[in-house]
Design a protein that fits this description.
globular, alpha+beta, YaeB-like fold, 99 residues, 36% strand
Length: 99
């Protein structure tokens, strides 16, 4: 399933606004920093709550948000009962995803 429109946080997530991070996702902040990307928790949460593009595969959602003229942030997350869990995130080239 693929969504190509802008979502408003509350509408797209049916009121689910709590976001949690897996251990892997928390460690990922340091990994991407070593490659020259300063990604904040706030940016990851904004990507989850209001992605510019959203794709779904099985139970996982893939949200995309533009970082700069060449890169976007891709966040992989799942919906749980009353919160969202960020599995991982990584910068991608915008041209690869056509944004």
């Amino acid at each position: 399933m693929c969504f190509h429109r802008k979502f408003e946080g509350k509408k797209s997530l049916a009121g689910v606004l709590r976001v949690k991070f897996t251990k892997h996702a928390l460690e990922k902040f340091e990994v991407v920093k070593r490659y020259g990307f300063e990604i904040s928790k706030e940016l990851v949460i904004k990507t989850v709550l209001n992605p510019e593009h959203l794709h779904k595969r099985g139970d996982q959602y893939f949200g995309l948000k533009i970082i700069n003229s060449k890169c976007a942030l891709r966040v992989v997350y799942e919906k749980r009962k009353d919160y969202l869990v960020v599995i991982t995130f990584y910068p991608v080239r915008r041209e690869r995803y056509g944004i």
